[in-house]
Amino acid sequence: MSEKGRHHVSSQKGVVKAWAGRFGKRTAAEVEEFSSSVPFDLRLWPYDIRGSIAHVRMLARCGIIDAEEARAILRALREIADELACGAFPVRVEHEDIHMNIEVRLREKLGKVAGKLHTARSRNDQVALDMHLWALDAFQELMGAVRELQGVLLDRAEAEGMRAVMPGYTHLQQAQPVLLAHHLLAHFWAFQRDVARLAEFRQRASMNPLGACALAGTSLPVDPEYTRRVLGLESCYANSIDAVSDRDFVCELLFACAMIMTHLSRLAEEIIIWSSYEWGFVELDDAYATGSSTMPQKKNPDVAELARAKCGRAYGNLVRLLTVLKGLPLAYNRDLQEDKEATFDSVDHTLGSLRVMSGLMRTVRFCTDRMARATQEHICATELVDYLVRKGAPFRDAHAAVARMVRRCLDEGRSWREWSEEDLKRAHPLLDLAALERLDPERTVASKRSPGGTAPERVRESLLQARRILMEWGKV
Ligand code: ARG
To answer: Are 127 and 97 in contact (CB under 8 A)?
Structure first.
């Protein structure tokens, strides 16, 4: 998908444009510079060539150009693709975008016949198609990268997470003990929603705008259904104006990236906190940590910090495109050219963040002893409440009684274990020494058997389900 640094982009002022016939002057150099998109849309070339090949085949099949002409154009397009692939293609800023650059090159190779490529097609449906095709490849890459991270989370949950009990948090205060596997799977399931979101977006990306031409369709006998099939797209647009105006699928892609980055940032944030000395729940692998140039003792979680920070780009790019589209009259406006950098930036950085966080999560060491030691005694207080509830106490009364007990423990610096049977009875008539046995993190975890809960048998079910989902993907 990326074309970084492979091409030399040159600039020669005042060349004759495809549309020069109607104009009495050449374009001002600063206009060329300002409006050129080729420095960033160059990477669309494989999609542009694919789209053109499908279009030329359709033109010949429908008898709009003859077979000989089509063969010549197809041959030249393949040569151009080779030039682009090896960096031998002369990219010129003054030819505005990658589409015009390819057309100009085609003319250099074929002369007049090259002009037939643009029959029954405008750059408006052409550029829309390129974005559709690019977005579909982005879909594949994003799915692969999300799946990879999910696989890592699942592997770690299976290998180490079932044996480790850790504090679960609300408000970043210890709340109830959970299995490490349960916590890791919480991230897995969030990413699973990203997968579903991407699959949704894919349907709307997989549409063929060809045949819309500039905006109104064409009087020539085109067959968009044929190009759809050749390009492997799922559907055609019902309306030619909509076909060239639509960038909803790009917004959806940007939102999917923004949401993936949100999920990544939450994972990254935990890694950052957990790797601090005070927490000590994880130790970063040396290959995924950085040092300090001044403080020799330091090991910093820069990777996770950057993943967290890159949310800013993802959100910014989404808002950027939505703002471009807001109030934009139908159909094509040059404003739409601004969809590209935002999209490329979001997808590049989301992919980069996913991949590096997969590496980080694969190699991070979970300090499970420390997790167990850090678990406060009172983390099981809710168990005591549930014990009373099971014996018939109203929940609110039970809660109030246990809350008073916690308070006393804290005030007197006492452990639950020091409470005598009488103390307990005084705290609540339904309490007894047997209740104190519940105050064990592992027992507490084992008791949370409600669907989706942290009890080992529930988490094991969840692991199996998650594994099945990942295996299904592997088969696609
Ligand atoms: N570079 C333009 C873009 O990316 C291509 C479409 C130009 N169409 C036009 N009518 N000027 O949107």
So the answer is: yes
Return the residue whose CA atom lies nearest to atom 7 of ligand 1: 123
User: Which domains are present in the chain?
Assistant: 27-119 (1.10.275.10), 124-205+243-374 (1.20.200.10), 377-439 (1.10.40.30)
User: Do 145 and 355 touch, CB atoms closer than 8 A?
Assistant: yes
Residue 313 backbone phi and psi in degrees, to 5: -60, -50
DSSP letter for each residue of 251-311: HHHHHHHHHHHHHHHHHHHHHHHHTSTTT-SEE--GGG-B--SS-TT--B-HHHHHHHHTH
Per-residue pLDDT reduced to its tens digit, 26-70: 889 899 889 999 999 999 999 999 999 999 999 999 999 999 999
What are the structure tokens assigned to 143, written together?
A: 């799915």
The length of the chain in residues reads 476
Tell me, yes or no, if 292 is annotated catalytic: yes
- From the CA of 340, give the closest atom in ligand 1: 4
Under 8 Å CB-to-CB from 215, ≥6 apart: which residues? 122, 124, 240, 241, 244, 245, 330, 331, 332
- The residue type of 233 is L
pLDDT tens-digit series, residues 237-281: 999 999 999 999 999 999 999 999 999 999 999 999 999 999 999
Tell me the C-alpha distance between 99 and 85, whole Å: 16
**Phi/psi zone of residue 96: left (φ > 0), alpha (ψ -120 to 50 degrees), beta?**
left
Long-range own/partner contacts, residues 467-474 (CB < 8 A, 24 or more apart): 467/154, 467/158, 469/192, 470/147, 470/150, 470/151, 470/154, 473/143, 473/147, 473/195
* The two three-digit tokens of residue 214, written as one number: 């500039």
Task: Output the CA–CA distances (angstroms, integers) from residue 70 to 73, 82, 124, 317, in the order listed.
Answer: 5, 18, 22, 40
Given the residues 171, 293, 420, 450, the one annotated as active site: 171
Asked if omega into 331 is within 30° of 0 (cis), the reply is yes
Q: Tell me, what amino acid is at 124?
A: N
How many Å apart are CA 103 and CA 373, to the nearest integer? 68
Catalytic residue among 10, 235, 276, 292: 292
- Is residue 1 within 8 Å of 138, Cβ to Cβ? yes
Q: Which three-class secondary structure state does DSSP give residue 91?
A: strand
CA dist., res. 236 & res. 58, Å (int): 15
**Tokens encoding 454:** 């942290």
